[in-house]
Write a structure and sequence with these properties.
Largest sheet: 11 strands, mixed
CATH superfamily of the largest domain: Periplasmic binding protein-like II
Distance between the termini: 95 Å
Structural class: alpha/beta
CATH class of the largest domain: Alpha Beta
Order of helices and strands: HEHEHEHEEHEHHEHEHEEHHEHH
Helix content: 40-55%
Radius of gyration: 25 Å
CATH topology of the largest domain: D-Maltodextrin-Binding Protein, domain 2
C-alpha cells in the first residue's frame, strides 16, 4: 500500500517537474519571440549619423536596424499612408512639431522609457508619445567668399535677408516636406504674428533661389558656392566646416531664433514593439547621445549627463524664442496653407 502511494507521489512530482520545465520552456520561447532580430526605423538625421546609430545599437543589443532616411514631412506622410499596416517601428529625428501632429492623429504609441526620467520635462511629451533627443538652432550657413567679393555684410537679423544684393542667393527647405522649413515658418509667425510673418515670406520668396526637399541640403549648397546663404540648423554648418569647407561662416539671428527638438517615438501598432522600446531606451542614454559629435553631428543634447559638442559651445548663448511646440504642431496644416498662399507655391 505504501509502495503504491510512493509511486503515485513520484509520478505526481515527475508531472509537476515536467510542467515546470514546460512552463519555463514556454516563457523562454515567448521571451525569444518578443525580442525581435531586427527593427525598421524612419530616420530624420543625416545618413552618416543614421548609419552609426544603426550599427552601434546592433552592437549593444544584437538587434539589426533597417533604416530609411527621410525628412520630417515625408516621414509624417509615410506613417499616415501606412497607418492600417505599419511598415516601421520607430521614428527618430526631425522636429517635435511633426510628432505632435502624428500623436494627435493617433499615429504614435505612448511609451515612457525609464531612461526618459532624466530628460527635462520641456523636452518630452507628458503622455509619453515622444521624447526629445537633441536640439538644433536655426540660423544662416554663409559662403564667406560671396560676401567678401561683393562687399555685402553677412546677415545678422531676419530682415537682413531681404537685402537686394541677396536676390537669388538664398536656399531654404520647403516647409511642406522638411520639418526644418516648417520650424522657420512657425518660429517667425510666433515672433511677429501671422500677418507680418506671411508678408515677410512673400518678400523672402523673391530672394530664394530654391526650396529643397531636405532640411540639411541648404547648408551644403552654401558650402559649394551654389548660393550665398543656406537657412538651416547651425550644426549642419559645423559639420561642413569639420569636413574642410573653410569658406563656411555661421550666423544666428540676433533678433531671435527657434530650435528644433529632434525626437524619437514608437509608431502605433509597430510590428516589433519590444525592439522599438529597446531602441527608445538606448537613444536616450548618455552614450548614444554622444555618438553624434564623434561622427559629424553637433547638436545640443537633451540628456543632461551627455557632453555638449565643443564645436557647438560658441552658440550656446544664442537668443532663443519661447518656441511653442504644441501650438506649432496643432497649427501646422493652417500655417502651411498660409505659407503656400504667401509664396504662391
Amino acid at each position: 500500500m505504501k509502495s503504491w502511494k510512493r509511486t503515485l507521489i513520484g509520478v505526481g512530482m515527475l508531472i509537476s517537474a515536467v510542467g515546470i520545465l514546460g512552463g519555463c520552456g514556454e516563457e523562454q520561447k515567448q521571451a525569444a519571440e518578443e525580442t525581435p532580430k531586427e527593427i525598421t526605423v524612419y530616420m530624420g538625421v543625416v545618413e552618416k549619423q543614421a548609419q552609426v546609430l544603426a550599427e552601434e545599437f546592433e552592437k549593444d543589443t544584437g538587434i539589426k536596424v533597417n533604416f530609411v532616411r527621410m525628412s520630417g514631412g515625408e516621414t509624417l506622410s509615410r506613417i499616415r499612408a501606412e497607418k492600417d499596416a505599419p511598415k516601421a517601428d520607430v521614428w527618430y529625428g526631425g522636429s517635435a512639431d511633426s510628432y505632435i501632429v502624428a500623436a494627435n492623429e493617433s499615429l504614435l504609441e505612448p511609451y515612457k522609457s525609464p531612461n526618459a526620467d532624466i530628460i527635462p520635462a520641456q523636452y518630452k511629451d507628458k503622455d509619453g508619445y515622444w521624447t526629445g533627443v537633441y536640439q538644433g538652432y536655426l540660423g544662416f550657413i554663409c559662403d564667406s567668399r560671396f560676401f567678401s567679393e561683393n562687399n555685402v555684410p553677412v546677415p545678422k537679423k531676419w530682415e537682413d535677408l531681404l537685402n537686394p544684393a541677396l536676390k537669388g542667393q538664398i536656399i531654404v527647405s520647403n516647409p511642406g516636406s522638411a520639418s526644418t522649413g516648417y520650424v522657420l515658418v512657425s518660429a517667425l509667425t510666433q515672433m511677429w504674428g501671422e500677418d507680418k510673418a506671411m508678408d515677410y515670406f512673400s518678400k523672402l520668396n523673391g530672394q530664394v533661389k530654391q526650396y529643397t526637399k531636405a532640411g540639411s541640403a541648404p547648408a551644403r549648397s552654401a558650402a559649394l558656392g551654389e548660393c550665398a546663404i543656406g537657412i538651416t540648423y547651425i550644426h549642419n554648418g559645423i559639420r561642413l566646416m569639420k569636413e574642410g569647407y573653410t569658406n563656411v561662416e555661421l550666423a544666428v539671428p540676433e533678433d531671435g531664433t527657434a530650435y528644433e527638438l529632434g525626437a524619437v517615438a514608437i509608431i502605433k501598432n509597430a510590428p516589433a514593439k519590444a525592439g522599438a522600446q529597446k531602441f527608445v531606451d538606448w537613444v536616450l542614454t548618455k552614450k548614444a547621445q554622444e555618438l553624434g559629435q564623434q561622427n559629424g553631428s553637433f547638436q545640443f543634447l537633451t540628456n543632461p549627463e551627455a557632453k555638449l559638442p565643443e564645436e557647438a559651445v560658441p552658440f550656446k548663448d544664442a537668443k532663443l524664442i519661447d518656441y511653442d511646440f504644441a501650438w506649432s504642431g496643432e497649427n501646422r496644416a493652417r500655417l502651411l496653407e498660409a505659407w503656400n498662399a504667401a509664396v504662391k507655391q
